[in-house]
Design goal:
By secondary structure, the chain is an alpha/beta fold. It has a domain of about 170 residues: 3-Layer(aba) Sandwich (Rossmann fold). The protein is about 45% helix and about 15% strand. It contains twelve helices and 13 strands. The strands form four sheets. The chain has a seven-stranded parallel sheet, sandwiched between helices. A two-stranded parallel ribbon has the order 6-13. A two-stranded parallel ribbon has the order 8-10. Strand 1, helix 1 and strand 2 form a beta-alpha-beta unit. Helix 1 packs across helix 8 and helix 4 packs parallel to helix 6. The longest helix has 26 residues. It binds 2-amino-3-ketobutyric acid. The site of 2-amino-3-ketobutyric acid has 11 residues, from loops.
Amino acid sequence: MRNEVVLITGANGEIGHGLITRLGEVANTHIVALDLKPLDKHLLPYCDRFIQGDILDKMLLGRLIAEYEITTIFHLASILSTKSEYNPVAAHEINVEGSINLLRLGVELSQWQGRSVKFIYPSSIAAYGLPDLKTKEEEGKIKEWRWCTPITMYGCNKLYCEHLGKYYANHYRQLAKDRIKNSIDFRCIRFPGLISADTIPTGGTSDYGPEMLHSAAQGEPYSCFVRPDTRISFMAMPDAIKALLLLEDAPRSSLTQLVYNVTSFSPTAKNLYDIVKKAYPDAEINFKVDPSRQAIVDSWPADTDDSAARDDWGWEPDYDMERAFNDYLIPAIKSRYSKKDA
Ligand code: AKB
């Protein structure tokens, strides 16, 4: 008898931290976690098993089929937008080939288990690419199908994997005589920039939000690499985890699409500066624009329209900007860094 588990790739990443903690603490789910690096020791107690390994290792993934009854795959592993620009080939390998390996694993598991494995995939506002600031302003809250013309490797990878997910779910081997009945149950969320109290992202371009806050909390000076008027949407990590679990839980029949926007607040960099300065009046923050990273953020929408997620699976964020900072981020970050100092 094999154990029923959920598989989480990219377990050490920001979303991985939040998801494993939530599933472990609240839902008491059996978790098999996978990451290239040794798992953060705080996460180990929540996992039935941790596998240190590479999503490009097909043999390793294949072995999971024999060992576990996997009900859901949360495929979180990826290389973020700024890092991807420095090594686009490696980014393509991890973000696309790694994802294909997981999609194929999902299909094989579905076949063996006789029911569709849920495949939950976090995409990003990086899947959009607006041509200029005038269009960005005119578009406002953007719908899922508008301006899917990304300008980064990461954005191209995310958009393509969204399409691959739909393909594997609905059309996989569509001409084969022995076409399988149970393919994966693919569900995808396009996230805005995420801000967590527990982790600092590495290699993203929305990182100026979390970096500004974490630097201030540690008494370190920070140079924000975008203009004060730069606007994209952000979300507090607990809401991101809430969205993933709500989408996972939704009845298949209620989903009218497979890729959904979610959003919660949409501050300018100056709004972020103001709220951080209010909490940490001595924080040294200045604006020193990096034109290349600025161009990437300028190509991302100012906000997204998440009405489909609200209508289909009852999405609603718990945290607006005030609550995210005042009730979650600032208290949790203060306690985190004071514990470190002690
Ligand atoms: C990044 O900046 O690359 C990510 C994202 C917006 O998906 N945080």
